[in-house]
Amino acid sequence: MTPTLVHHQHRTRLPAAGSAARVRDWAEIQERMLVPLYEAVYERMETGPGTRVLGLGCGTGLALLLAADRGADVHGADADAARLELAGERLPGADGTPDQAPRLTHGTALEAIEAAEAVETSGTGLRPTLVTAFGALPQPDELVRLRAALGRGVPVVVAGWGPAERCAAAPALRVANRLAGPAEAGPDWCGRDDLEELAVRGGLRLEGSGRVACPFEYADMESAVRGLLSTGLYDSAVRAADEEQVLKELVEALHPHLRADGTVWMPNLFRYVVART
User: Fold this and answer.
1) Which backbone phi and psi does 53 adopt, to 5 degrees?
2) Using alpha carbons only, how large is the chain's radius of gyration in Å?
3) Pairing of strands 73-78, 264-266
4) Do 56 and 109 form a contact (C-beta atoms < 8 A)?
5) How is the beta sheet containing 205-213 ordered, strand by strand?
6) Which of 66, 93, 197, 252 counts the highest number of beta carbons within 10 A?
7) CB 116 within 8 A of CB 130
8) How far apart are CA 274 and CA 44, in angstroms?
């Protein structure tokens, strides 16, 4: 089975990095795997009408969409222009309705804060009452600047992978590092205190933490491969080796999680911390 799948995918070619098809793979296959994390955070933070959410690394906007469904006002930022464009299409107000139009910033966390401040100054909105970082972990200096820009008392939720030993997807993700070389960074595996230490180094005051099960379940092996490749973690591996080798090793790493009905299922644990500026 494995050689046939690899041959088929290599022959048909997989979506290139930055392509519309790759962005759609992220939005339609991979991003939904983190819904339990998003919902757990929003439930804990009592997100709803009156909440103004700023999502850092918002990607194609699913987390913002869930917050908007709860009645929150949403603003997102992401460095990936293609993902951000799709977020704008998916969020309420994509039809141009002025009082519901989402505010999206192409750029860094600080640029998002500056955009939010500009909105506040213009009288068309207010500063965020909840900041989330569900994407890549921010650096401590980014959190320091975030704290300075927001002032005191704004809750910030930072989330990431749990320990590698609690994430069944870890072997598949390590394929990217092994083929790309030791200089390439992989996922940020978070030990028991890693997120707390990050928040403290960023000058935030800790309030609590949580753990959420986020199983990765795919309709079939091809969906699993396309979903994981859409993360962008394998791009360097494809450049360093070749697509066929990456596909071969990725499918082999996923094979233990292939179930009798053809679906692929991997239990994973994600962690988050709640802190305040």
Assistant:
1) -95, 130
2) 19
3) unpaired
4) yes
5) 103-106, 73-78, 52-56, 130-133, 155-161, 269-276, 205-213
6) 66
7) no
8) 10
Distance CA 161, CA 170 (A): 10
Q: Are 25 and 226 in contact (CB under 8 A)?
A: yes
Strand 52-56 with 155-161, pairing: unpaired
CA angle 226, 230, 234 (to 5 degrees): 95
Helices 62-69 and 35-44 pack at an angle, to 10 degrees, of 40
- CA angle 245/181/217 to nearest 5° reads 55
- State the Cα–Cα distance between residues 189 and 247, nearest whole angstrom: 23
How do beta strands 269-276 and 205-213 pair? antiparallel
CA–CA dist 11, 20 (Å, integer): 20
- Model pLDDT for residues 77-112, shown as the tens digit of each residue: 998 999 999 999 988 765 444 444 558 888 877 777
Provide the whole-model pTM.
0.88
DSSP 28: I
Alpha helices for 70-108 (secondary structure H): 81-90
Question: What tokens does 6 get?
Answer: 């690899």
